[in-house]
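ok trying again, last paste got cut off:
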Amino acid sequence: MSVEHPNSFWRATANSGRQFSVLDSDRSTETLIVGGGFTGLSTARELSSRGRECLVLEAHDIGWGASGRNGGFAVPRFKMNYSALALKYGHEVAHALYLQALEAVDSVAETVESYKIDCSFQRNGHLTPAHNHTALAGLQADVDWLRSRASDSTARIMGPDETFEALGTTVYQGAYLDPRGACLHPFNYTRGLAHGLEARGVPILTNSPVVSLHRDGDRWVARTPAGAVRAKSVVLATNAYTQPLLPKDDLSRRVVPVASSIITTRPLSSHERKKTLPCELPVTDTRRLVSYFRILPTGQLMFGGRGDITGRRDDPAVYRTLERQLALTYPHLKGIEIEERWAGMVAVTLDSFPHIGKLDDNVFYALGYGGRGVALSSLMGRRLAALVSGERIRPGPMGDDNFTTVPFHAWRRTGMRIMARYYQIRDRFER
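nice, full thing came through this time. structure:
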């Protein structure tokens, strides 16, 4: 049964396009991809470029999940600073992760170009402002590490005055600027890629949830309410919407689904535009409960962060914390009319890394982006295609080693609410 897309700015400004088909009979393919979001479509894109047969099953419509609801930021860094990664894993591993982060954003840019996707793609840079002096010192350590260990002097630190001139707010102590960051219209990107793949012969079947997966000889059989797909290999690309499909499948208990909420203001006046994010770059700050924002092509300010942990309520009251944070960041916008409010689920892991691996014989997965999925999912799609093709990969900390279940997973929502409140208090007192 079709589930309507949630209201959002992306949905309201989406390109027109024909609908995708539904699985209504039994099919067979070499590789079945379960999930038609960033990860699944990126995997199909890479397999298609290798000349390998694949088929995508999406439980709802393309762009229904977080891939069509997120902020649209492609950030060339992980949540943890490179300097901190070097201390934890060593310089060699940190350098490999740095190269993969750049490859991830490059992959998105290359996909947009190759498939001629109309998604307002811009690669003018990304800002990471520091909410306190400790965070700024960490960003400075990042710049120093990149210069000394990666011979990369592209990213730089902006001081308080330059940060104020760029962001139009005094709440930050400085900022890390990487001109290789990008942003896009995620709904148009997702659907544009799906249509492009379909035009190249990849079946994209929607409103076809996989309800069971079992082995039948040398093939896997995935059943939906209206049919089944037989495949040699299976890729699970369902991220925060992952449900157990195999008898000993604990994948869904290795991540915690958390709602990331977004609001958009009415279009800003020319006076307001001069005072609000003058640089017009996408911004993701260093708070534990991250704030991220950007100016949209319509002149509206998009502001995202944590709302209701479960993401299940449409009540505007859920977004009041977000609106208060907007007012703290830009006091001149306090009480401004909010035109859209929406949320999407992200999958959080214990180590803040996405993970890729093998769940069973010829059953592979990638998930756990924690809000960094626009770019990293494109990277994971490449890696999943390599695994399906029988190649070895070196994911480092993003592999399945030590990717264990979350303790007390059944009480995850209560725990997340407690931690969210704790982080909120710490963020407030560390300003």
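cool. The first strand starts at residue 27 and ends at 34. Residues 91-114 form the longest helix (24 residues).
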